Amino acid sequence: MNQHAVQEGWHHLGEQQRAVVVVDQLSAQQKASAIFLPGWWDVRGWGFGVSIVTRRDSIWTSPGQFGWGGAFGTSWITDPRENLVAILMIQCMDFPPRPAGIHADFLTSVYQALED
């Protein structure tokens, strides 16, 4: 979601709208009262329809990264700092959503393949 979010000359969202989508919309009180995966909200937030990373906790997370991990294993991340989009498409019940097994291996491999 950057200046390249244009298709056939049309911007799908304005610059300000794109920026708002990936800002954490949850308050500290909302995060503290959530029972969804203990510790999840320590390093993540919720924008408008996407999970966002607020603090690094692994090789493959960085603040500003956003995406979605589905209950059946398919996941997508966008990392604006690395100009990266990664999509893993599997169909395997994996709930609660957590970067375990193949997810962690996939994202670790993606980030290890990046050149400095």
Q: Which key features would you list for this structure?
A:
116 residues; alpha+beta; two-stranded antiparallel sheet; 4 helices; 25% helix; 21% strand
Q: Outline of this structure?
A:
The chain has 116 residues and is of the alpha+beta class.
What does this protein structure show overall?
This protein has 116 residues and is α+β, with helices and mostly antiparallel strands. The chain has one domain (6-113). A 5-stranded antiparallel sheet has the order 3-4-5-6-7. Strands 1-2 form a two-stranded antiparallel ribbon. The model has no long low-confidence stretch (mean pLDDT 81). The chain is globular. 25% of the residues lie in helices and 21% in strands.
**Beginning-to-end CA distance, first to last residue:** 22 Å
Broad structural category: alpha+beta
- As a percent range, the share of strand residues is 15-25%
What is the helix content?
25-40%
Biggest pleated sheet:
5 strands, antiparallel
Radius of gyration: 15 Å
- The number of strands is 7
> Helices and strands, in N-to-C order?
EEHHHEEEEEH
Widest sheet: strand ordering: 3-4-5-6-7
Q: Assign an overall shape.
A: globular
Q: How many structural domains are formed by the residues?
A: 1
Low-confidence regions = none
Helices, by number, come to: 4
- Can you give the mean pLDDT? 81
